[in-house]
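User: Last request for today: this protein with zinc ion, please.
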Amino acid sequence: MVKVLKVKECPFCGNDVEVLASLEGYCKFECLICGADVAFCPPQGKEEILDVKKSIETWNKRSESSKSECCPFCGEDVLLIAFPDIGNVLGCYYGCGASVTFCGAERNKEKLVEAWSRRA
Ligand SMILES: [Zn+2]
Ligand SMILES: [Zn+2]
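Assistant: Here's the final one, the structure of the complex with zinc ion:
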């Protein structure tokens, strides 16, 4: 059920991450050091589901943009969305579909933005 694969390091702290993949094709990336929790959802208007392979391809992309407020994967602007059940999430809804939160920062916007703005 859960596989650990070798992929690029965490864009926020530079440490190794774990890839958690399910048989349904759902895939997410977890950094045990900074607590980043990243999943990729299909971009708006596209029906295709991002499978494990595509998720890893997107994760391994790095933006040339040095602006720390932008998505580290594709360089697009992100939105801060508060979900009633899971808390605050930073979503790259106009770009790669990344949905990012940090362990312990879901309930604290300032912590979330601070963790997001760090770049390895
Ligand atoms: Zn990290
Ligand atoms: Zn993105």
